[in-house]
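My current task is to audit a protein record that another person submitted. My question to you is simply how this chain folds and whether the tokens agree. This is what I was given:
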Amino acid sequence: MKTDIQIARECQLDHINDIASRLGIEPEKIEPYGRYMAKVPISMIDEKQVKKSRLILVTAISPTKAGIGKTTVSIGLSLGLNKIGKRAVVALREPSLGPCFGIKGGAAGGGYAQVLPMEKINLHFTGDFHAVTSAHNTISALLDNYLYQHRKDGFSLREIYWKRVLDVNDRALRNIVTGLRGDGIVSETGFDITSASELMAILCLATSEEDLQHRIENILLGITSDGKPFRVSDLGVAGAITVLLRDALMPNLVQTMEHTPAFIHGGPFANIAHGCSSVLATKMAMTLGDYVVTEAGFGADLGAEKFFDIKCRKAGLQPCLVVIVATTQGLKMHGGVALEAIKEPNMKGLKEGLKNLNRHINNMQGFGQPVVVTLNRYDSDVDEEIDVVRRNCEALGVGFAVNEAFLKGGEGAVELAQTVVDTIDRIKALPIHYAYTESDSIEDKIEKVCKRIYGAAGIEFTKTGKKKLESLKAMFGDDERIMRYPVCIAKTQFSFTADSTRYGSPEGFTIRIRDLILNCGSEMIVAIAGDMLRMPGLPKSPQAERIIIENGEIEGLS
């Protein structure tokens, strides 16, 4: 079987000027990065056109080690929509080097449903991730310097919240000590992965260059010795950090294997951040396409919930339909079937696994959204099992379609595309029913997500979590704007619970909140659940062991 890279090399790419022209953009208005990639100025966004476009969210059942293929389906759906005569654009997140070199290799789709040039997209692309990493660590350096230069003035921080970031999974850097040997002020700190950087969230939520700088100014770095908030604005460097992110703010334009325009911009993880591509890329796509397909990371309990409660709430977006991706293999794992046996027919395991799918369907309908389920077909799938999934969806009154874009490109997604269009025409999405209101307390917001979306019996704060909650309220309880921030719960992607080993659709569990992080720039409160880490580790056999250059070509990046 051909690899994704081999399939991608079969495709004759159009020049990026031609892709821009297809969208009605004059070539001189874009900023090319070579022949096949470009930045598009945010001045191209037209809010009137945004309101006319149909926004489709692609999400999924809870992911398993079997894989789901959500990005492949998102790209395939855009291809299918164009196949049936619709003007479609896809808007996705950028891949992170951490997963690409760690667990799964490339993240630009698969088979005949890829965004191209996939090697560049999966590696350095247009430098956005590097810009966020550099900007974040520049703040760290400037903060350390400020503390060092003002120590004789009696200035110090009682608590420092700002860590460093790196776009590589490196568990050894989770907890470190800086400033040893007299080279600065000794401090305990650590590294998060770049996708967890508040600057990444800011980049994805900013609506303009001015908004970007304003958000950077508001970043909370720590608490002074006399108990006052210390922000980037106090360092006086927000302008410099904005300069570092100025080019990164512009969405990136590329193409699919069938030359469908694709915007790829921003890369927050949905298990530790809000998991959506940028507001600017989404609005750019909606300005230029009648139908826009976007995705939210991991399962619907993580990415989709945050897409609605954070991104749509803040950006004023109104999607018209949700596509939930499932696979028979993933459903079997949720039904208790062992990983090594999921390719074999197992009707009992499949039916048990449908409970996971059905909870996600119910959650998406709870947000007021029409739902279509798509079965991402694998070679080992049998028609009898697919029919079980189809009948399950029909019984729930939701659309169902098989997706074969991996093997057939747009032709393999025509059934899905037509089902999506027919459902949008037949069922009008309701105004979003958010999981909580902005006026709810921090505890109530977290509890409502945990109960309504995860199915938890309740929540509890650890000793550290409770202390953080009390501290946050004591310092910012009178600031109504901060208290209205949405919550972004960081938890495992593999389960509705905070326990990565509990597949399926568990009930009656408790979610433990061990930490709260106030992000005043991205305007959200991050709640860390269970043992979730913001700097992942590498597996025993990382994908990097299989990535090589052979005969002048990159291999293993898929």
User: Anything to note?
Assistant: Residues 303 and 416 are 21 Å apart (CA to CA). The longest helix spans residues 128-149. The chain has a mean pLDDT of 95.
